Amino acid sequence: MKKPPFAIALAAALSLSGQVHSSEEDERYNVQVHKSPTCGCCDDWVKHMEDNGFDVQVTETNNLNPIKIEAGLTPALASCHTARVGDYVIEGHVPASDVRRLLANAPMAAGLAVPGMPAGSPGMEMGDRRERYQVLLFNEQGQTRVFSEHN
């Protein structure tokens, strides 16, 4: 049975819109990381992100303070590396699953942070040692709320 022209046009449009959506999805998963050239745990976090489908570009620097200040991070939110994914800042050892959830839900926020360097967080694996930690959602005023908890 021959398809009417409208059905063919609709199928083509749906196919094309899927391709556009896929391109937008790919762009959302690009990560730009700023880290110290000597930080091994940062390298491990980069690998964690890559293993979870993110395309990661690394910029090494010995002075992260200007990057953290420009990103709106307070000292209480700080960790060893600072990343950007789309319009969001990702500070420290945030699990890839939380970054994906952030991107999927797109809340009005500046980003996510795992302050310090908790044992057991991605990139900070230390055998069986695990510390309970929180991933904080923060806004441009530095206000936070718990986004997720891990142990």
Features:
alpha/beta; 151 residues; 34% helix
- In total, the number of strands is 7
Give the number of helices: 4
Q: For the terminal residues, how far apart are their CA atoms?
A: 59 Å
Instruction: Provide the domain count.
Output: 1
Provide the low-confidence segments as ranges: 1-27
Radius of gyration, CA atoms, in whole angstroms? 19 Å
**Major beta-sheet overview:** 7 strands, mixed
Write down the overall mean pLDDT: 85
Percent of residues in beta strands:
25-35%
Strand order of the largest sheet: 2-1-3-4-5-6-7
Measured as a percent range, the helix fraction is 25-40%
The shape is globular
Content-based structural category: alpha/beta
Order of helices and strands: HEHEHEEHEEE
How would you portray this structure in words?
This protein has 4 helices and 7 strands. Helix content is 34%, strand content 25%. The longest helix has 24 residues, at 5-28. The chain has one domain (31-150). It has 151 residues and is an alpha/beta fold. The relative contact order is 0.14. The chain has a 7-stranded mixed sheet with strand order 2-1-3-4-5-6-7. α2 (40-51) links the parallel β1 (30-35) and β2 (55-60).
How would you sum up this structure in a few lines?
With 151 residues, the protein is an alpha/beta fold. It has four helices and seven strands. A seven-stranded mixed sheet has the order 2-1-3-4-5-6-7.
Present the secondary structure layout.
Layout: H1 5-28, E1 30-35, H2 40-51, E2 55-60, H3 65-70, E3 82-85, E4 88-92, H4 96-105, E5 111-114, E6 133-138, E7 144-150
Parallel strand pairs: 1-2, 4-5
Antiparallel strand pairs: 1-3, 3-4, 5-6, 6-7
